[in-house]
Design goal:
CATH class of the largest domain: Alpha Beta
Number of strands: 29
Distance between the termini: 33 Å
Structural class: alpha/beta
Largest sheet: 7 strands, mixed
CATH topology of the largest domain: Rossmann fold
Strand content: 25-35%
Helix content: 10-25%
């Protein structure tokens, strides 16, 4: 009787089946991805011709994105900057009325608001991808940040998605307004409202994504350094700031793009829900282990903390405001699809004051914390300045190997600098990069079996077999000849009396 041939069938992960993502194979130079860049002076040519679009084009070009910028406004071509169309308008706000006395790109100043402009633009072109960076003029002129983020922006989103229902939309947190000015206007007077606007915008994006809409978020606030990446007006990014904006757009574009080889995926979104323990107990190290029972812990959406106007979940600190709990614990998780091998995890962490981050029970990194073993009583090394710094998602890249498929745990302990600190804050985003692993299939061919895997994902993989899964080192290369047929690598196997197992292994 022939032995039973078993094989490893890797399931199609969410990166390949998610609704509305950019499937790069669907586009070509003859059918490019149509990208519409929408915004105010940071997108328009008011300060720099091409603005951040000047730097995004080479990132897309060199990474094999066939694309074109669409829009009714055109920058001046310059060297390799040839994709010059856009919908940027100096002084633009989200909703009426416009705030300018002079016309911009054909619109009277009072009509320079995106709810009108974008409706007009989408009657002229239907983009595949819409990049929206707006809000500096709204917040800098004293408009209510909640109104702009939770009323005006959703109305703009509805306009976009009703006219381009298959488009992906990436909204952006605005950059800092600390010490910023627009001519004689003191935008810096409202800089604390930026964090409120950005947090509310993050929540709107999460709500829309939960409804199945193709909406995601870019974080220009964190990537544009307040100390080195602005012009003297502290409002408009300089060349380094525009490059940082372009790189952030590109990272977010990669995260919604499906290719045949590389994978970029947002595994934990800013503003996601976390379980937390704010009871003031010393939990040792067991709390960071995957099998720890956190069923009694409370849960809430980030940003979590206290004493902060940008919070979504307030945690406790004890009965004495002058003697708050030094340490608060948080637990969250992410899922690794069975057909993806992640090689790098980019943790983006916002915290007040210090933190230690654990991945599946092992310390991944720490920030603003002393060296050595960490105890419940350890204080952060320095106080976090509770202005813009508290809301920056600082990146830490961790190379990973053998990250298991399925649920993985992220645990974070946040430590205060002193027990009398008025503010605690925590949020985290996680972006993974890696590659697809191929699915191995089996079909009958007469008295033989054919094992096959796709050429698109399978370069560098070889077929291995074993007759005993319990034996150490029992996997050996299969000796059968590999052929290529119809986009598949294929191996013909003749069954015998021995039960054999097969798997693909990266060489």
């Amino acid at each position: 009787m022939p032995g039973l041939v078993l094989f490893c069938l890797l399931l199609l992960g969410p990166g390949r089946s998610a609704r509305g993502e950019l499937v790069l194979a669907n586009f070509s130079p003859a059918n490019p991805v149509k990208i519409m860049a929408i915004g105010d002076s940071i997108t328009d040519d008011c300060v720099v011709n091409g603005a951040w679009r000047l730097y995004l084009q080479p990132l897309l070009d060199t990474n094999s994105y066939p694309f074109t910028f669409v829009g009714r406004v055109q920058s001046a071509p310059s060297g390799s900057f040839t994709q010059t169309h856009h919908e940027g308008y100096c002084g633009a706000v989200v909703a009426p009325p416009g705030v300018l006395a002079s016309p911009v790109n054909g619109y009277a100043g009072t009509n320079v608001y995106l709810q009108k402009i974008v409706a007009d633009a989408l009657s002229n072109a239907t983009p595949d991808l819409v990049l929206v960076l707006i809000g500096a003029n709204d917040i800098g002129r004293g408009r209510n940040p909640y109104q702009v983020a939770t009323n005006d922006m959703p109305a703009l989103l509805d306009i976009i998605l009703s006219n381009a229902p298959n488009a992906n939309v990436i909204l952006a947190k605005i950059t800092s307004l600390y010490n910023a000015s627009a001519g004689s206007l003191n935008y810096g007077a409202y800089y604390t409202n930026v964090s409120i606007y950005n947090a509310a915008l993050q929540a709107i994006v999460n709500q829309r994504r939960a409804l199945g809409q193709n909406v995601s978020l870019a974080d220009m606030f964190s990537v544009v350094s307040i100390s080195t990446m602005f012009n003297p007006d502290h409002l408009h990014p300089n060349a380094a700031g525009l490059q940082a904006i372009a790189q952030e757009w590109f990272t977010r574009i990669q995260a919604i793009t499906i290719t045949t080889n590389r994978v970029t995926s947002t595994l934990i979104h800013g503003g996601d829900a976390w379980k937390y323990s704010d009871a003031g107990q010393d939990l040792g190290t067991n709390w960071s282990q995957p099998d720890f029972d956190d069923s009694s812990w409370a849960s809430g959406s980030a940003r979590l903390g206290y004493g902060d106007p940008a919070l979504f979940t307030t945690v406790g600190y004890g009965s004495d405001p002058a003697n708050k709990h030094i340490t608060t614990y948080f637990r969250g998780s992410f899922v690794v699809p069975g057909n993806v091998i992640f090689t790098n995890l980019n943790f983006r962490l916002a915290r007040v004051d210090g933190a230690v981050v654990w991945l599946s029970g092992q310390e991944a990194f720490r920030t603003n914390m002393p060296a050595g073993p960490i105890a419940y009583t350890n204080r952060a090394s320095l106080p976090t300045v509770v202005v813009d710094t508290a809301y920056i998602f600082y990146p830490t890249n961790i190379a990973v190997t053998n990250l298991p498929a399925g649920t993985n745990l992220v645990a974070v302990e946040v430590h205060l600098f002193t027990p009398g600190r008025p503010v605690l804050g925590f949020d985290l985003e996680l972006i993974g990069t890696g590659y697809f692993s191929p699915s191995l299939s089996i079909t009958a061919a007469g008295t033989n079996f054919i094992l096959a895997w796709p050429v698109a994902d399978g370069a560098g993989y070889a077929l291995y077999s074993s007759s005993d899964l319990t034996a150490t080192g029992g996997w050996t290369p299969a000796t059968a000849t590999v052929q290529t047929n119809g986009g598949q690598y294929a191996v013909t196997v003749a069954p015998d009396a021995i039960t054999r197992f097969f798997r693909l292994q990266k060489q």
